[in-house]
Q: What sequence folds into this?
């Protein structure tokens, strides 16, 4: 399956959440070391200049859930630099890709066209033009909800549980000698395994007269949504599992990138760190639509080692590469 990307005419930049936090600390005069302050001050300046001149789109992702302290301030930083331009929520982007690849598989097409506009609520080029010179005249429209202490505690607990689960899995796989390629094939079939597990769990509960929980219903909705999309396109319930096992499914960008990165992380001798799983979620979603992605050093190295940056023609850098980042942005 070939992918033809309809790229945005204005280069798109996405920044890792930790970079956003550092920029926010700089803007709020929160303590940073001299090297960090120098890096982020230069980065803020060049992003501001290039976005206001219409030569760059700095685009927000759905990163609020990762920012606990300075949440409101970080949102202001992103809105200020992005001019309110945001990617759609991850699930919406994933569903757009899934629909396109299902359609290609059913109709036996060998090429899938992915348009950058599908990742946005509206065409970001038109939004920037309106905000720079149109009727909005510089107005930035952005919505942000405050985060409660309870939500922060729940987020922290969830992240810790996920981190422990990933490290436990990594230790088992490394001790068992599971290779990256072996784990990659398991990651590709993860959705099938998850669907079977959910159906077995619900059937067991129904058979034993146990209560179906909200979590069960949420998990079941993933299966029903898949079936509904497939039925809408094919007119039949048959063939969905074959699609989920196919090479076409594996080429869906967020599946391709996410599975490869997860397989790399859980078969590495290096422990999983907090934020790795969420970074995979973000990067697998935004990287195909971005010209420049700035992430942390370890994630950058994984992406480059796996050739993901070359496959999607995305420049992937980390904040240690600040000189290269500035050169890339200045030449726009």
A:
């Amino acid at each position: 399956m070939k992918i033809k990307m309809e790229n945005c005419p204005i280069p798109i930049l996405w920044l890792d959440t930790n970079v956003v936090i550092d920029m926010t600390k700089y803007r709020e005069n929160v303590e940073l070391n001299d090297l960090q302050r120098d890096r982020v001050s230069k980065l803020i300046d060049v992003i501001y200049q290039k976005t206001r001149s219409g030569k760059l789109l700095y685009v927000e992702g759905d990163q609020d859930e990762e920012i606990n302290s300075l949440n409101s301030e970080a949102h202001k930083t992103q809105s200020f630099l992005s001019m309110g331009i945001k990617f759609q929520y991850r699930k919406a982007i994933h569903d757009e890709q899934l629909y396109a690849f299902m359609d290609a598989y059913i109709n036996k097409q060998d090429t899938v066209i992915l348009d950058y506009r599908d990742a946005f609520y509206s065409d970001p080029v038109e939004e920037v033009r309106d905000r720079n010179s149109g009727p909005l005249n510089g107005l930035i429209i952005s919505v942000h909800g405050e985060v409660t202490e309870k939500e922060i505690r729940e987020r922290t607990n969830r992240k810790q549980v996920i981190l422990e689960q990933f490290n436990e899995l990594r230790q088992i796989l490394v001790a068992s000698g599971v290779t990256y390629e072996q784990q990659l094939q398991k990651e590709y079939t993860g959705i099938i395994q998850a669907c079977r597990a959910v159906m077995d769990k619900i059937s067991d509960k129904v058979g034993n007269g146990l209560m179906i929980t909200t979590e069960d219903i949420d998990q079941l909705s993933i299966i029903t949504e898949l079936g509904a999309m497939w039925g809408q396109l094919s007119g039949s319930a048959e063939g969905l599992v074959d699609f989920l096992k196919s090479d076409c499914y594996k080429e869906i960008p967020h599946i391709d990138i996410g599975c490869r990165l997860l397989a790399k992380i859980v078969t590495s001798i290096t422990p999983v760190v907090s934020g790795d799983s969420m970074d995979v979620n973000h990067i697998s979603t935004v990287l195909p639509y971005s010209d420049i992605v700035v992430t942390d050093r370890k994630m950058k190295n994984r992406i480059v080692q796996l050739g993901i940056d070359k496959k999607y023609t995305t420049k992937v850098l980390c904040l240690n590469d600040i000189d290269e980042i500035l050169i890339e942005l200045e030449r726009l």
